[in-house]
Amino acid sequence: MSAIRALGPFPGDRAGGEAELAHTCLYYMALMRELEDRIERKLYRQGKIVGGVYVGRGQEAIPVGTALVAGEDDVLLPAHRDMAAFLIRGIPARRILAQYMGRVDGPTHGREGNMHMGDMKLKLVSIISALAATVPVAAGCALALRYQGKSGVAFSYFGDGATSRGDWHEGVNFASVQKLPVVFICNNNQYAYSTPLSAQMACANVADRGPAYNMPAEIVDGNDVFAVHEATVRAAAHARAGLGPYLLECKTFRMTGHSAHDAAHYVPTGMFDEWGKLDPITRCEARMLEKGWASADEFEPLRAAVRQEVDDAVAWAEKSPYPDPATLLDDVYERRE
Amino acid sequence: MSTTYLEAIRQGLWEEMERDPNVFLLGEDIGVYGGAFKVTAGFFEHFGEKRVVDTPISEAAIIGASIGAGLMGLRPVAEMQFADFISCGFDQIVNFAAKCRYRWGASVPMVVRAPSGGGIHGGPYHSQNPEMWFVRTPGLKVVAPATAYDAKGLIKSAIRDNDPVIYFEHKGLYRRIKEDLPAGDYTVPIGQAKVVREGRDLSIITYGAMVWVALDAADTLAEEGASVEVVDLRTLLPLDRETVCASVKKTAKALLLHEDTRTGGMAGELAASISESVFEYLDAPILRVTAPDTPVPYSPPLEDAFLPNAQKVIEKARWLVRY
Ligand SMILES: Cc1ncc(C[n+]2csc(CCOP(=O)(O)OP(=O)(O)O)c2C)c(N)n1
Question: 0.80 exceeded by the pTM?
Fold first, then answer.
């Protein structure tokens, strides 16, 4: 495991075998699952999380399979269920926990909560709450990459519901017209808060929106991390080659309410069971066994190591102080001496 | 039976829908789910999908469609899931709805409900008070009730109004305050402030959740022998300058209080109005208590420092009383 944890923030730049990739995927999916379980099912209920909690349980293959393709030149604009993208890009679990707890050692030092964080040194752009607002921003990041003569690609993340916003359409159209290197990554988890897909859009698939922008659009099994990874490699190569943006619609399911306070009574009974059978972590393990990339006795030690990592991270975050109210007015503008 | 602020809004909406078949609701997750804050729980079951429309996540379409429906003679009430997201429909409000009557004589009866305000650890995008984006747009009406009575009376007036009304409802008040409401139909006129506590030594002029902060502060100050008057604006546009100025004329001292940030906030307009009309009655400088000019921070110690509270009001009020 230690080799995997030392991967560093830009795994997309590393050449590695399929087995190594599989282990890496499994590790990050397991870490995201454990971290979010801890946040939603324990720390939130203990009143230790300051604000709302939105998790990506069941959707881990999407941020993992995509973000692992990103290299140092690429820029990521994750959405609110893409915890693993932050982990992969190099924000450690302990700092993410500090963020959720409103502590000073979170990436935003207590100014922001939950998934609202970024770090341009890591080419990681913070979301804002207004859905799809970062889609045109992704086009701008891609424009800058091309302008600067870099081979990087922008990875733009959003949910199915966000594609109803005008900003989404403006951003996608702009990227298409300009043939900008953007990979648009939709987690289609079939619900936007309580709104099912059928009340969100008149087409059956988010990918159906692609042709309107003359943009290739691919439907991917979003619960198969290898399929997501493969499709992302294809999409990124297309974008990098100067052929314009590429849309990946990753079909998945939100295995939870919209947020920690939503019991999701509006989801028809049975859907959780049905999709539970397609759990991306279980499927990854099964594939690893089938391919001989791992033996069954390796998984429990991995889970234990991940639990330990999260235990340590929680302990660290709980020791982090709250921000000093005297800093309230800092950083509205650049500090100048 | 005591009615909460949230229940008062529900009742107002419900009664207007019963009264006028042209009134209908639209917004995200308002139907089957009953709304993010459950303001419209039960409406879909009672009024049906024709009158309670679940929309895609499309604020510009929600507001634009409300304008269209309003132009055609319906009375739409649009819900923003959070006031913060009203920015996504901003152009429709400020450039289309607000200017229709003046430009081409068309009525746009439309209400946009905007759950606003901090103190719920919502961070920068679930806590804002964006009223001033609209208060400086002629053609709109902007209301911000502080009590259950006004919440119900103003939603009714807003629905019956033939001009577009932005209705700010403070999330922190939803379940926190209650009062007994009259049984029958009543409205609260748009454009009228109200003296909610009479006093002689100082006027605190405020609105929304800060009315309760002002009343708290006034209680403490009363124990110290200071008699504080509290004016609740209730409507921010058109502004009831007469009630404000009459109060200041009487007490000779004004403390302006709002939860919104400082620069370009309501207090600036109030201060200018007071000095234009009743300068010669003033015995002290006009002071402000507001949030500072920063986004709304998430972590509790930062948010506590950000939000105005009774203590901050008391300090400034004491200074004014002694002046
Ligand atoms: C412009 C805007 N309107 C409303 C909201 C409130 N909201 C937050 S998440 C959400 C549902 C998002 O659905 P989707 O884009 O499919 O992403 P998912 O949560 O399913 O991953 C809504 C309505 C918001 N954040 N932004």
Answer: yes
